[in-house]
């Protein structure tokens, strides 16, 4: 079996989940988020692009409903034993198969929580599911129940995050070696991803971000490559990935002589991220982190150029995004606890002058000050 955790750890996670389910008065939970299934059982697949769900009862009983293509995947990568297959056919409605499975599991009339807020739950599936279950039992939105349990990492998870962080550093080293006037973004991107694969890492849950010139102000991937000019700016956002655990980083690299505006924006990023380190610890909330970000940026006159979030929790994630639900934005009451892996990013896009500057790295929280997981300092990078 291709398991990344000891069975005792899976048992501990299931016990924590069922305890929480009892607190929430849930008889069963329908998991549609692949990261929830992976965390709970080890099940590793991209088959969530089709209908599948893991049924978890409050007594710890689990049953997976999936397609035939994932039968062996589930057997090989997870601790699951009870696996059911719905059959691909014209006008198939796997939610009917699910309802029949729930009857077999004695859940008629039960209180059932559902993970709605996930990429494994399309609008069509949601409508079909509600049509089948609205009169079957008492259904409720339990999208964040497992997500919150996953926030605090176990020692094994921390080790995977640390390994991912090493791979992220290796990717930055590979990028810097190639970055110079005339360098092709395609070669830089290939070197970064290649460093992670060569180090035993995995595909990221979303594309690496690379953009130079005017594209350096973007904070999403887009198709198309260009070669660097003698004076240029190159924004990179990427993640080292190991056993699906992510450690993200972000930098804007300046090629040639930096403009004064580059220096000004870098100083704002550096000052803000160092100030955030003073509140990225127990006794503070995710909202406190954002408030620190907004206060410093706004005092420097950068309110129009900053974003409305400055980072998020990281962990084991699947496509299309490595971002967890818990983000640093205004009013988020989520407390910071030890052993959270949190990505803090400063992103400034000054469209008035066409100037970009970013700075970001992943931290592991402790009982006091956070620990940066990168071996690279937060220094200005000019080549």
From TrEMBL:
<keyword id="KW-0031">Aminopeptidase</keyword>
<dbReference type="GO" id="GO:0004177">
    <property type="term" value="F:aminopeptidase activity"/>
</dbReference>
<dbReference type="InterPro" id="IPR050659">
    <property type="entry name" value="Peptidase_M24B"/>
</dbReference>
<feature type="domain" description="Peptidase M24">
    <location>
        <begin position="161"/>
        <end position="365"/>
    </location>
</feature>
<dbReference type="InterPro" id="IPR036005">
    <property type="entry name" value="Creatinase/aminopeptidase-like"/>
</dbReference>
<dbReference type="InterPro" id="IPR000587">
    <property type="entry name" value="Creatinase_N"/>
</dbReference>
<protein>
    <submittedName>
        <fullName>Aminopeptidase P family protein</fullName>
    </submittedName>
</protein>
<dbReference type="InterPro" id="IPR029149">
    <property type="entry name" value="Creatin/AminoP/Spt16_N"/>
</dbReference>
<feature type="domain" description="Creatinase N-terminal">
    <location>
        <begin position="13"/>
        <end position="152"/>
    </location>
</feature>
<keyword id="KW-0378">Hydrolase</keyword>
<keyword id="KW-0645">Protease</keyword>
<dbReference type="Pfam" id="PF00557">
    <property type="entry name" value="Peptidase_M24"/>
</dbReference>
<dbReference type="Pfam" id="PF01321">
    <property type="entry name" value="Creatinase_N"/>
</dbReference>
<dbReference type="InterPro" id="IPR000994">
    <property type="entry name" value="Pept_M24"/>
</dbReference>
């Amino acid at each position: 079996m291709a398991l990344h955790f000891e069975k005792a750890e899976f048992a501990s996670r299931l016990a924590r989940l069922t305890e929480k389910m009892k607190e929430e008065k849930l008889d069963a939970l329908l998991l549609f988020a692949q990261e929830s299934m992976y965390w709970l059982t080890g099940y590793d697949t991209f088959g969530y692009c089709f209908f599948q769900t893991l049924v978890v009862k409050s007594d710890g009983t689990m049953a997976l409903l999936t397609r035939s293509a994932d039968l062996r995947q589930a057997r090989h990568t997870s601790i699951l034993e009870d696996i059911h297959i719905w059959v691909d056919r014209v006008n198939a409605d796997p939610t009917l198969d699910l309802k029949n499975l729930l009857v077999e599991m004695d859940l008629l009339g039960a209180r059932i929580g559902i993970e709605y807020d996930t990429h494994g739950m399309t609008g069509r599936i949601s409508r079909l599911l509600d049509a089948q279950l609205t009169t079957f039992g008492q259904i409720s939105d339990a999208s964040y129940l497992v997500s919150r349990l996953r926030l605090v990492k176990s020692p094994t998870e921390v080790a995977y995050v640390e390994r991912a962080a090493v791979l992220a550093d290796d990717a930055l080293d590979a990028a810097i070696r190639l970055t110079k006037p005339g360098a092709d973004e395609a070669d830089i991107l290939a070197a970064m991803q290649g460093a992670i694969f060569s180090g035993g890492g995995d595909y990221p849950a979303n594309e690496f971000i690379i953009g130079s010139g005017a594209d350096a102000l973007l904070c999403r991937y887009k198709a198309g490559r260009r070669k660097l000019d003698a004076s240029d700016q190159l924004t990179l956002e990427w993640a080292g990935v190991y056993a699906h655990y992510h450690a993200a980083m972000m930098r804007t690299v300046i090629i040639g002589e930096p403009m004064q505006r580059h220096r000004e924006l870098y100083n704002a990023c550096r000052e803000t991220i160092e100030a955030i380190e003073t509140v990225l610890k127990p006794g503070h909330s995710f909202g406190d982190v954002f408030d620190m970000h907004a206060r410093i940026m706004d005092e420097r006159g950068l309110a129009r150029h900053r974003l409305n979030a400055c980072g998020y929790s990281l962990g084991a994630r699947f496509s299309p995004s490595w971002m967890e639900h818990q983000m640093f934005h205004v009013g988020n009451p989520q407390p910071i606890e030890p052993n959270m892996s949190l990505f803090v990013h400063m992103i400034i896009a000054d469209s008035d002058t066409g100037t970009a500057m970013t700075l970001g790295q992943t931290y592991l929280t402790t009982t006091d000050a956070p620990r940066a997981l990168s071996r690279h300092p937060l220094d200005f990078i000019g080549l």
